[in-house]
Amino acid sequence: MRVATLPLVVLMTLLALTGCVNPPEQTATDTGATPGPQAGDRPIRIGFSMDTLKEERWQRDKMLVEQRARELGAVLDVQVANGDDAVQTKQADNMLTKGVDVLIVAPHNGVIAASIVEAAHRRGVPVIAYDRMIQNADVDLYVSHQVERMGEMQGQYALQRKPKGNYILIGGSPTDYNAQLLRKGQMKALKPAIDRGDIKVISEQFAREWKAEEALRITEDALTRTGNRIDAIVASNDGTAGGAISALEAVGLAGKVLVTGQDAQKDAVQRIVKGTQTMTIYKQIQPLAFSAVDAAIKLARKQPVETNDKVNNGKIDVPSILHEPIAVDKANLDATIIADGYHKREEIYGPGK
Ligand code: BGC
After folding, report:
1. pLDDT tens digits for 127-179?
2. 41-139+285-323: CATH number
3. Run of H or E including 188
4. Closest ligand 1 atom to Cα of 236
5. What CATH code is assigned to 147-283+327-349?
């Protein structure tokens, strides 16, 4: 079901029709059955464990989670691990020790973060996997966008415009389950053309830590191996797209090779206007952040949470709220990213334009 572009009220009604997740049996504190936080209730304490603030989008996530928690009267503790698994585990442990009622976790490493879920459950604290899945664990809820679908959109977009030729596929961090889901979606779109021999995949690597430098290296290498004969680069996010485009610029090919992305971050949208990046996947962060906080409060209060999907994480089918991504290029940039106020017009097109 496609839901993210709908107003929250409609979204919630739709979700109510499609499914719901029951909170875990045990919670740290029983705050009563009153629906939603109300004056007189003890505020719900939410811990938000983040991997990183490196990409622009994560700063938005943090700001919007803070805003929603404030609006709903919840007490929020945000910790950022800066890509360090040991730090993320420790920060989550500390939040549990301090007595959070619910944890929202955007994991650095989807496998290692399973230990955070175990530690939380030992204390009866429910866990929401945020944006990135936590693998092989009894995750209570997953709140994200349709990640595999985004990969498919990137692949389809490239294929429609470059139905034949040499392709580079640049994946994200191998420790991030999103990177695998994206690749799965990309391959779903591209495989028939690969099997027909229309498309030749020159390189299909994953960029460690989603680093632009890795994407640059992968692209340089593929350019060298093909004597600069590359037609499309399916980069999994805008950061890696930026790295790939730097490599193209160095050989005078920027703007001539199709490049995909994801996140609609400012520099990428500017590149779309300039013509060096072809498209991005626009993921609205507000519905994501708000639905995570809303669900966190419900789980903490032992109230059911409406979901619209299930995603298998290797252990269970995790009840999920998945929001809809939008493919954006020059043609629909104004009607989407600018119209929504995600970026201001002058920030993208320059002053007075
Ligand atoms: C997120 C992307 C982000 C990437 C790097 C992924 O899990 O879904 O939005 O660009 O991580 O932080």
Report:
1. 999 999 999 999 999 999 999 999 999 999 999 999 999 999 999 999 999 99
2. 3.40.50.2300
3. helix 177-196
4. 10
5. 3.40.50.2300
